[in-house]
Amino acid sequence: MGLIVSLGAVLAIVVVAWIGGQVPGLQGLFGIVVPYVAFVTFLFGFMYKVVNWARSPVPFRIPTTGGQEFSLPWIKWSKLDNPSTTAGVVGRMALEILLFRSLFRNTRAEHRSGWLIYGPSKWLWLAALGFHYAFFTIAIRHLRLFTQPIPGLIEAIDKIDGMFQIGAPPIYITDVVFILAVGFLFCRRLFLPKVRYISLPADYFPLFLLLAIGTTGILMRFFFRVDIVNVKALAMGLASFHPVIPEGIGAIFFIHITLVSSLFAYFPFSKLMHMGGVFMSPTRNLANNSRMKMHINPWRTPPKFHTYEEYEEKYRDLMKDAGIPLERE
Amino acid sequence: MYDAGKVIIGLVIFFCFFTFAFWYNMGKAAPAPKPKLDTPVIKKMVKKQCIEGTHFMRTTHMQLLNHLRDQALRQGNRWYTNKRGEKVWISLQNTCLKCHSNKKEFCDKCHNYVGVDPYCWDCHFDPNRSKL
Fold this sequence. Notes:
The complex is a heterodimer. By secondary structure, chain A is mainly alpha-helical. Chain A has 15 helices and two strands. Chain B has helices at residues 4-18, 20-24, 40-44, 54-74, 92-99, 107-113, 120-123; strands spanning 79-81, 87-89.
């Protein structure tokens, strides 16, 4: 069900952009207004979410860890998996963000000849890492259309990405990795019954959206060619706040940019916010130093005690009349 | 907000990173290039047309050139029949650059603008500016 709803939503975006991109009066809407609105939504939605998270107190350390905490000198301490210092936390965060260490620990339980066997399972880690680095490189590469003169680093990345020089324009390595990795992540949801059971439209929709973005990009580069000089003129117009719609940009371009705008606008309200969330994750970014430092609950106010002395003072006469023994006469 | 200092630093980095294109281009005008067609050979032409239509050449010339390269060098067939039915001798230096003898003002203008560095010139050279 979620699968069909998500696919329908992405196809609806494609159809709307396709039709809109061919109506001359609507090209400004799909080429200028929608991208700007989507980008502003992304920027401020993202910051709003992060600030909102930062306002939630995290009163205590939450050491869900994959290793031995710092204790006694003769017990081996797992410095990166269970850090008790800031440097250790930086190391753990770096490994998590750059190499997806916690996904690398993924295991798989299987029944084999009557035994329950746990074994490593790295495919998810590999596809996730491949997808994220490919997508990041693709995003950086696209800056060649948004900058003039193009920074050398971006040109170098573009050149390395196309270093196999297959065809003209050359095939990018990241395009291949992106499609394969997103395809894997999608097939995993589709064919593994346990993963499929817990999959929601919010899981399928980003995958379809990413696949559609990749597909339209590749189609535009290799099959339904558009005039790249005009595309850059449009992109530069957006980046320099002098938006223009040049002549003769094909419908495929409007589909591509509308899909990307949808991704930007959807981003702050979706699971994709793990981009900011990974930095805010209390189980990753707090040192496990509960036994070294006093952590005080931030909303703590001194509790109101009613001591026995005050009680006795209040009810002294009644207690005396009833013959109850008093501590102070 | 808890850990306000760290969170704000993070958000500033986020903001600057994603708005890179906006502040990088600030105050710089970068009009789209217009490749020049005023070479002596083109000026003499009565009907100014390339081997295929302008829109096709603008969008797809790289695929056509790649295809022609394969046809000429791998299949040994140096005659290309275009959509108008004319036969064209396949040669970058003798056919393409005969009219477009201004590589710097023609090829390089757009290629530099969109950050494309075609490897044509790994093998070919520009006969009008023999740089060998």
